[in-house]
């Protein structure tokens, strides 16, 4: 008797749950019925690409990168109408690319995007891609170039000596 009651209660629960799931499934609105507003430009273009460009420049300055040493190239994307910016960034030896990636990711989050980094050990580079709307809008290729950031110590020592001798 108890066995039959447990079996009947389980069958009843299954029938009730299947009825509820069928009811929820049948009330679901099909995707093709909902009219989406059509825009001429994709969602990633709604983000102001110039603002992202300015933010990237400010973050590079924050990390001690010389902007005059950065080579900036505009690349036309094949599938879309916007121009992706690629930067060749020479970096000093003490720069930690993980911290830069974290800062670029925090900046990209403000524009509903993300920053992804990849490392190429063969070429000794780190590439940071900034994505907005599933499209890469900026690429930064970080390559160590300590000679760009070296100060000429001989010239500095000479200038200090000349200042000392001119004071006397």
Brief overview, please?
The protein is an alpha+beta fold and 168 residues long. It has helices at 2-27, 43-46, 49-62, 97-109, 146-149, 153-167, and strands spanning 71-76, 83-91, 113-120, 125-132, 135-144. Strands 1-2-5-4-3 form a 5-stranded mixed β-sheet.
Structural class: alpha+beta
The strand count comes to: 5
Q: Helix segment count? A: 6
Order of helices and strands: HHHEEHEEEHH
Major pleated sheet:
5 strands, mixed
Characterize the structure shown.
With 168 residues, this protein is an alpha+beta fold. It has a domain at 43-149: 2-Layer Sandwich (Beta Polymerase, domain 2), CATH 3.30.460. 45% of the residues lie in helices and 24% in strands. It has 6 helices and 5 strands; from the N terminus they run αααββαβββαα. A 5-stranded mixed sheet has the order 1-2-5-4-3. A hairpin with a 6-residue loop joins strand 1 (71-76) and strand 2 (83-91). Helix 3 (49-62) runs antiparallel to helix 4. The radius of gyration is 29 Å and the shape is elongated. It starts with a helix and ends with a helix. Residues 39-44 have low confidence and may be disordered.
Offer a few descriptive terms.
168 residues; alpha+beta; Beta Polymerase, domain 2; five-stranded mixed beta sheet; 5 strands; elongated
Sequence-ordered SSE layout with sheet pairings:
Blueprint: H1 2-27, H2 43-46, H3 49-62, E1 71-76, E2 83-91, H4 97-109, E3 113-120, E4 125-132, E5 135-144, H5 146-149, H6 153-167
Parallel strand pairs: 2-5
Antiparallel strand pairs: 1-2, 3-4, 4-5
Helix pairs in contact: 3-4
């Amino acid at each position: 008797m108890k066995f039959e009651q447990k079996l009947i209660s389980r069958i009843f629960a299954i029938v009730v749950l299947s009825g509820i799931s069928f009811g929820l499934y049948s009330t679901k609105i099909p995707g093709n019925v909902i009219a989406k507003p059509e825009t001429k430009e994709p969602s990633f273009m709604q983000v102001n690409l110039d603002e992202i460009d300015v933010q990237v420049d400010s973050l590079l300055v924050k990390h001690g990168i010389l902007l005059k040493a950065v080579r900036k190239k505009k690349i036309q994307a094949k599938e879309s109408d916007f121009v992706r910016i690629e930067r060749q960034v020479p970096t000093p030896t003490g720069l930690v690319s993980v911290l830069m990636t974290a800062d670029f990711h925090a900046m990209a989050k403000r524009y509903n995007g993300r920053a992804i980094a990849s490392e190429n050990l063969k070429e000794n580079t780190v590439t940071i891609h900034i994505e907005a709307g599933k499209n890469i809008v900026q690429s930064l290729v970080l390559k160590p170039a300590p000679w760009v950031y070296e100060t000429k110590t001989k010239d500095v020592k000479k200038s200090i000596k000349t200042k000392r001798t001119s004071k006397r």
